[in-house]
Design goal:
- The protein is an all-alpha fold and 142 residues long.
- Helix content is 62%, strand content 0%.
- The protein has six helices and no strands.
- The protein has helices at 4-11, 16-36, 43-72, 76-85, 91-98, 113-123.
- Helix 3 crosses helix 6 (113-123) and helix 5 crosses helix 6 (113-123).
- The longest helix has 30 residues, at 43-72.
């Protein structure tokens, strides 16, 4: 005894309209899955993501330079103590006013670099009182 469903499936011949709408449904379903769970993004979103990553990288680099310039200063110990005494929401202003966050050749500090620099400096220990500018200073890299 033959299975009636298998016989019906073998004899089925879809129309052109059925083929067309099946293809449309497959394309739409693929796009929904791709953009929802597959990690696909549009060109504009990719451009925005790249711009954001570039800005964050620029701020990280500027903050690293800021920490080095801060710690290379002759009065680094005094300035670090003053920074630690400053409230956390005013530390970026302290760094900007000191000029450490402004890179050479620039008029303004890189956006968000002063915050990162202040965070890194606040986590550092005060250098020994007899430390010279040539002595290596501990820095934290994040």
């Amino acid at each position: 005894m033959a299975n009636p469903y298998a016989e019906r499936w073998r004899n089925y011949r879809p129309s052109k309209a059925a083929w067309f709408w099946s293809c449309v449904a497959a394309v739409v379903l693929t796009m929904i899955i791709g953009f929802s769970w597959g990690g696909w993004v549009t060109g504009g979103t990719a451009r925005d993501m790249a711009d954001t990553a570039a800005e964050e990288a620029r701020a990280q680099l500027a903050a690293t330079v800021c920490v080095d310039r801060f710690m290379d200063a002759a009065d680094a110990r005094t300035q670090l103590a003053a920074l630690k005494e400053t409230s956390s929401w005013e530390r970026d202003s302290f760094i900007e006013e000191g000029g450490w966050a402004t890179l050479p050749g620039m008029d303004e500090p890189v956006e968000a670099s002063a915050d990162l620099c202040a965070e890194r400096l606040a986590e550092m220990q005060l250098p020994p009182s007899g430390a010279t500018a040539d002595a290596p200073q501990p820095t934290t890299v994040q």
